[in-house]
């Protein structure tokens, strides 16, 4: 019985560690990326690196994408980035 409990605990811990190591991947529709690439939007300056997971401050205006409420975009430091408009977090650096 003791061996069974130890084995179950080891299995639980190993599976839990695998779940924590997983990352979330966002699949962006192609039409969103195409729309953002065609827009003529001035670049804003942001101190620091602009990478996936970076939260943009409230001072950065996020532009909406028609018929795509889950995505916004902004040009930061001359890079076009897709943003989750609810969390203001960068989800992809387009260029």
Account of the protein in words:
- With 95 residues, the protein is α+β, with helices and mostly antiparallel strands.
- It has a domain at 44-93: inner membrane protein cigr (Nuclear Transport Factor 2, Chain: A, Roll), CATH 3.10.450.160.
- 31% of the residues lie in helices and 19% in strands.
- The protein contains two helices and four strands, in the order ααββββ.
- The chain has helices spanning 2-21, 30-38, and strands at 63-64, 72-76, 79-84, 89-93.
- It has a four-stranded antiparallel beta sheet with strand order 1-2-3-4, covered by helices on one side.
- Strand 2 (72-76) and strand 3 (79-84) form a beta hairpin.
- Residues 4-22 have low confidence and may be disordered.
- It comes from Rhizobium sophorae.
- InterPro entries: DUF1236 (IPR009642).
What is this entry, summarized?
Helix content is 31%, strand content 19%. The chain has helices at residues 2-21, 30-38; strands at 63-64, 72-76, 79-84, 89-93. The model is unreliable at 4-22 (pLDDT under 50).
Oligomeric state? single chain
Number of strands: 4
Fourth-level CATH superfamily of the domain at 44-93: inner membrane protein cigr
Instruction: Kindly report the spatial arrangement of strands forming the biggest sheet.
Output: 1-2-3-4
Cα(first) to Cα(last) distance is 58 Å
Low-pLDDT windows of residues: 4-22
Main sheet: strands, sense, barrel: 4 strands, antiparallel
* CATH topology tier name of the domain at 44-93: Nuclear Transport Factor 2, Chain: A
> How much is the average pLDDT?
81
CATH class of the domain at 44-93: Alpha Beta
Structural class given helices, strands, pairing? alpha+beta
Q: What is the 3D form? A: globular
Helix tally? 2
Helical residues, percent: 25-40%
Reported CATH architecture of the domain at 44-93: Roll
Please trace the helix and strand order, writing H or E for each element. HHEEEE
Rg from Cα: 20 Å
Q: Beta-strand percentage?
A: 15-25%
């Amino acid at each position: 019985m003791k061996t069974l409990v130890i084995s179950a605990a080891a299995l639980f811990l190993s599976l839990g560690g695998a779940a924590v190591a997983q990352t979330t991947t966002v699949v962006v529709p192609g039409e969103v990326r195409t729309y953002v690439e065609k827009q003529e939007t001035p670049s804003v300056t942001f101190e620091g690196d602009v990478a996936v997971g970076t939260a943009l401050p409230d001072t950065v205006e996020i532009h909406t994408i028609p018929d795509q409420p889950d995505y916004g975009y902004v040009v930061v430091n001359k890079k076009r980035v897709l943003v989750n408009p609810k969390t203001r977090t960068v989800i992809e650096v387009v260029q």
